[in-house]
């Protein structure tokens, strides 16, 4: 339920941070909701600017979610589920929905830039918040690099179909895949950096245009491919049973990661209490509808067994149905724009999370310095962009890229817990959106996240464990002592 015009703090007052005590007390210190909201937008030397409405916020979440997944995922999921991959998309969407409901409630109640990091700080304590923020750095930072790596492949497809020229593998493939330096990966990250340095309003406008282009590209695919749909291709609808449908659903869940990106814009939204919950839910609905529509037409236009090993299934279907290369080239253009949009929005989210952590003293102050003219955290943006660009261009990511999934699921799980805790500790606080059937739905969301984390392979857990160990060393060596809550206690 949406309640108009409500402000986050109301009702019972937030308890003060605990007085100085033992180590356990310091690790559990919480940042009051009122203080989080009051500090919203404030950085070193300037403030973030509130310039985005609900539509721009929705486009940020769609931009971060609707990317490489739909362009390549069918080749992986259809062999598991057959034509019932449509149901798999619905199952994955429902799985994401439980966490999205929790995000929507907290985004409306605590409209700040830190996303789940800030929600955890207000409810679960500083150590848990740090762990959550560290997971988000893994999710956003590495996923930018992982997505950028694939941009060169689609760029080459577009170049081959238009000018008959492609970049050599040495300059368009990551190390380990036949290349030495992935130049396109670095270029797309630097292009995103340029937009972000111009300010949130300008980057949101660019993202809206790119999202519109990739939605039009997918709708064009549907318009062309529907001519090749044959009812016989749906005949054996669930060839591998519900087991296959469930397995495909687990694979497809990661196509929904990114719907939470709007929550990182809490301090740059004009009316965050009203618009953030709506943007999160609307983006998930739009993405799910597009996924199901594209999947239904794709499996109707091509027998499901032919999807095995097909990484460019949509382009192949358009070419087979139309008999022309033009449509496949057009789809490649859509994929190039789609990946660029993901890089832009995810990079934006990464900079805003670091902004919030820096303002709290947990990472260096340079990440919260705001340029007075543009209202953008310039130094933050440049540092993050160069790091992600070099990571994508020069370092083999391997299983590290898969670790983004486990970091995301862990953050989602914590958000579901935070909703229940905030309902218990602040029952009278005004909320512009309430997760229905709480605590049942948040508990279901939490259990689904834990289940999906358990389905990941051992090497992913090892990478995650190493990343967490490094994070704890950084926290105990730097963040715990320099935290603004710690210095306020002295």
From TrEMBL:
Residues 1-26 are annotated as: Disordered. The chain crosses the membrane at residues 57-78, 84-106, 127-151, 179-197, 209-228, 240-259, 280-304, 326-349, 379-397, 403-424, 436-453, 459-478. It is found in: Membrane. One of its GO terms (molecular function) is amino acid transmembrane transporter activity. InterPro entries: AA/rel_permease1 (IPR002293), AA_transporter (IPR004758). Coiled coil: none annotated. It comes from the Bacteria. Gene3D superfamilies: Amino acid/polyamine transporter I. Signal peptide: none annotated. Keywords: Membrane, Transmembrane, Transmembrane helix. This is Amino acid permease.
